[in-house]
């Protein structure tokens, strides 16, 4: 599992990219915990989107754990929901322990 930090911005892009890069070739589904995300910018979204697309090309899945309203709002604003497939609030509530 990979946990996103509270800040996913251009200042943190290198750390985010290198952390996700280690998981690109993981054969099993990669779980990304988004519950800590409080702030994300287009650089953070670009890295997440690229990671998800790279995994899709390899026919490998990414699943999201938790919810992050700021991430969902930013993805919606930029039209990335169909690519990222982030959980909506009601879906996250259904899968909560």
Protein topology:
Elements: E1 2-3, E2 7-8, H1 13-21, E3 30-33, E4 39-40, H2 42-57, E5 62-65, H3 69-77, H4 81-84, H5 89-95
Parallel strand pairs: 1-3, 2-4, 3-5
Task: Considering the chains and any ligands shown, give keywords for the structure.
single chain, 97 residues, alpha/beta, Transcription Regulator spoIIAA, 3-stranded parallel β-sheet, two-stranded parallel sheet, 5 helices, globular
Structure write-up:
The protein is of the alpha/beta class. The protein has one domain: 2-Layer Sandwich (Transcription Regulator spoIIAA). It is 46% helix and 14% strand. Strands 1-3-5 form a 3-stranded parallel β-sheet. It is globular and about 30 Å long.
Extended strand count: 5
CATH class: Alpha Beta
- Architecture (CATH level 2) name: 2-Layer Sandwich
**Distance between termini?**
17 Å
Strand order of the largest sheet: 1-3-5
Query: How many H/I helical runs?
Result: 5
């Amino acid at each position: 599992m990979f946990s996103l930090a509270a800040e996913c911005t251009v200042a943190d892009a290198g750390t985010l990219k290198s952390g996700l890069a280690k998981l690109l070739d993981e054969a099993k589904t990669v779980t990304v915990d988004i519950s800590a995300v409080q702030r994300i910018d287009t650089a953070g979204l670009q890295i997440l989107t690229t990671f998800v697309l790279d995994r899709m090309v390899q026919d490998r899945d990414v699943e999201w754990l938790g919810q992050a309203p700021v991430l969902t709002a930013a993805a919606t604003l930029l039209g990335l929901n169909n690519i990222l497939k982030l959980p909506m609030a009601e879906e996250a509530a259904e899968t909560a322990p």
